[in-house]
Amino acid sequence: MHLQDAIEQGAEVFIPAEVEPREFYTTPQFEREITLPDRTRAMVQHLAKLMRRFGPMDKTMVFCVDTEHARLVARLLQDEFGPETGLDNYAVPIVSEEGEQARRWLEDFADSDKKTPVVATTAELLSTGVDIPACKNIVFMKTLSSPILFKQIIGRGSRVDQATEKYWFRIIDFTGATRLFDQWDRPAGPPPQPPVGPFTATLTGYVFHAQTGERIVGARVAVRTGPNTQQGPILTDKDGTFTFSNLPVGTLTLICNAPGFTPRELRVETLADETVVVEVPLKPQAKSAGKIRVEGLEVTIADEAVFLIEETGQQLTLSEYKDYTRRHITQTAPTLKTLRAIWVDPPRRRAFLEDLRRQSIHPEVLAEIMDQSEADTFDLLAHLAFGVPIRTRSERASAFRNREQAFIQAFGENARRVILELLEKYRAGGIEQLQPEVFSVSPFREWGGAFTISRWFGGTERLRSTLLTMQQKIYPEEVAV
Questions:
Q1: Which of 23, 184, 376, 442 is the most buried (most CB within 10 A)?
Q2: Residue 248 per-residue DSSP state
Q3: Cellular component GO terms, alphabetically (predicted)?
């Protein structure tokens, strides 16, 4: 960006007295040397649009340039979603300057059982050594040049979380950080293994100001014990000291940061049944010069989706990913009739979907990207593989209700009520709702659960048979020729 061009376009430029402006600024300087509030607002508004589309309560990490930037992004996202969710901690800045409050926010954010905070913005604290299994969105609003740091950040989202049924995650990249996938480190050998013990080592020490020697109270200290494991972070006490016990023996990484100081990582060798003492000097951060501020810019966001095939590291555009999906579907189901036969057989359907996931094909992701969140998954896959029109779950549910009156009326009043409610469950959540487990949720639970409901159908086997028949009738065979 040329400052003169910005001025000619009507933007206001504020230059601190101590700053010698450059003639031209590129993305790495944005928010470091030159602040562009309009750009940040545009990114936040675009992110908010995506989150409303994908799921506004999906846990999200936003990596920002610095503390000031992280706080601004958190405030803007809070302004976007706070009023509509009723949450005063929807988006929070997890930065070292927030001290104990940041630690509490981080604990809540990392807890899969806690819904808030939903969004955590950070400049450095979430890059490494923090396990956030439920995180579904990794957002880059800062530029990166280090493949190692990129890999560490991506690792925050790559955890599988059974508790929230999270098996994949999104990367939302505003700064081109995903170009570093080209340098992704894929070791030839097996992945690194977590430590196996003995866990008899102790590590203690203190953190101090590198220039004055003064102990630092409230510094955050953690020990990375393996590729995805760590102890801490904890805060240094009133004497600036910390202690970790029950550590594995070997080479560990000590991570330390404090407000106003440059973060530091140290390699530490621990010994069995011994206490290792470490002194950790932290250098104060250099006082940064003021930033140029440019306001009144017109900013647009260019959309582009890239899909990563985990097994090969291949990156595909949306068009290429659709073609990749089509090939894999037709390898198993060469005709629409074959796909329908797989789909109405629950064990075969689950095996088929699991095979697609192993190939990095996630129908729910495609539905989001194609703006087809209401589409039946069968119809989405059939459309990609065979070009048939996409039908929504609501359309199929309504068609079933109109077409299958004879089937519905063959049951007693209570059983008919169950069938119609099952149809609504399908309309809302898809075909996997039509499984025996559904009778443990409302309203079936209030109706007596599977035990009582099975009696309305004449027994457990009749109930199971009805569930299977409904699945077959939702996808009538005549449409799959």
A1: 376
A2: P
A3: cytosol
Q: What are phi and psi of 270, to 5 degrees?
A: -100, 155
Q: Which residue has the tokens 């109270």?
A: 217
Yes or no: say if 173 and 304 are a contact pair by the CB < 8 Å rule. Answer: no
Q: What letter represents residue 417's amino acid? A: R
**CA distance linking residue 124 with residue 256, whole number of Å:** 11
Q: What is the pLDDT of residues 28-86, one digit of tens each?
A: 788 878 888 899 999 999 999 888 878 899 999 999 988 889 999 999 999 999 998 89
pLDDT of residue 98: 66
- Which residue is listed with tokens 């030159």? 34
In this predicted structure, what is the pLDDT of residue 175?
Answer: 87
Residue spans of the domains in the chain: they are 35-183, 201-282, 306-391, 394-479
Are 335 and 329 in contact by the 8 Å Cβ rule? The answer is no
pLDDT of 421 higher than 80: yes
Q: How far is CA 147 from the centre of its chain?
A: 20
pLDDT of residue 129: 54
What is the 8-class DSSP label of residue 470? Answer: H
Average pLDDT of the segment spanning 387-401: 94
With a cut of 70, say whether residue 192 has pLDDT above it.
no
Q: Please enumerate in sequence order all residues whose Cβ is within 8 A of that of 280, keeping only pairs 6 or more positions apart, or say none.
A: 205, 206, 207, 208, 219, 221, 254, 256, 264, 266
Of 374, 371, 329, which is closest to residue 349 (Cα–Cα)? 329
Tokens of 405: 């009156």
Copy the structure tokens of residue 124: 């450095």
* Structure tokens that stand for 41 in this block: 């607002």
Name the token pair of 46.
């675009």
Give the bridge partners for 226, in sequence order: 229
What value does the mean pLDDT take over residues 453-473? 95
| pLDDT over 60 at 139, yes or no | yes
Instruction: Let me know: does 393 contact 427? Beta carbons within 8 Å.
Output: yes
* List of E strands, 12-53: 12-14, 34-35
Q: Please answer whether residues 341 and 391 qualify as being in contact, where contact means their C-beta atoms are separated by less than 8 angstroms.
A: no
Domain 201-282 = CATH 2.60.40.10: yes
Please give the class, per CATH, of domain 35-183.
Answer: alpha beta
Q: Which residue has the higher pLDDT, 355 or 229?
A: 355
Backbone angles phi, psi at 385, to 5 degrees: -85, -40
What are residue 91's DSSP bridge partners?
Answer: 119
Distance (Å) of CA 214 to CA 209, 278, 479: 5, 16, 77
Confidence at residue 179, expressed as pLDDT on a 0 to 100 scale: 77
Transcribe 294-343 into DSSP letters.
EES---------EEEETTTTEEEEHHHHHHHHHHHHHHH-SSHHHHHHHH
Q: CA torsion, points 214, 215, 220, 225, in degrees to nearest 10?
A: 110
